[in-house]
Amino acid sequence: MTEWDIRKLQILRALRDHGTVTATAQALLMTPSAVSQQLTNLAKQLGVRLLEAHGRRVRLTDAAHLVLRHTEDVFAQLERADAALAGYLEGESGQVRVGAFSTAVPALVVPAVTRLRAGHPGLEVRVREAEAAEAYELLSAGEVDLALSLAAQAPTARDPRFHRVPLLADPLDVALPAAHPLAAAPGLRLADLSGERWIFGGSGPWSEITTTACEAAGFVPEQAHSAAGWTAILAMVEAGMGVALVPRMAAAERTTPGAPGVVMRVLDADQPRRHVVAAVRRGAEDAPGIARVLAALREAAGTR
To answer: What predicted TM-score, i.e. pTM, was given to this entire model?
Structure first.
């Protein structure tokens, strides 16, 4: 029977995910030569070529991809074994590390933790704020146990590494200066704002969400100002410097509630939304602590 080395298979998977031996070594805190040696030994153990030259890099052979397709089930089963052992050893206690993007922390994570403290005081939740895309990198690297992200920034639902749970379709409202001619207009649509000056981030998920929503409404937004924080964005809107799409979660939790110079308008008919998802490594969803945190997050999302 072929000898399977789990650690070497993890290195092979990391090479697939990171693309180069150097990037793989950095991600795994190894040297490039150690990565190459481990993969050479794995190829000898399995009796197949796993890597082939591709310019100045290497790429995985068809045999390597075949091996990884089968070993994803092995990795998932090991996660289930960890989950079962955690449930046996920890019961109501334990620790779950959560990575979440900024607006999800006050809107979803804090209410979930509050519920868990009341019902399961022995379960510790540690929160780490991270950009939506970075949350999956932390999850894949084992630095968090659960990631809250945006569906647009997440790997496909068919990715065998993760189990995803849809949480919330967060509506995007438009922030207008109070004196704007359309601030009180009935039946406001996003297309009505095609000639406005827009405020949104210069890059990253919020830039993509804003431009995608506007393009779906039939126009490309003219970016007048760039900002990433909602306090800065709303301050510029209040000053009459432009308009902005704002997630309802962010508007509800912003640090300057009730700013007299800003009107939040719910868009009519073509209301854009961003979809919030939670994810864990596949097989870990049955761990008691993780299952409880997921349930609390679903409860928090259901109350919004």
So the answer is: 0.73
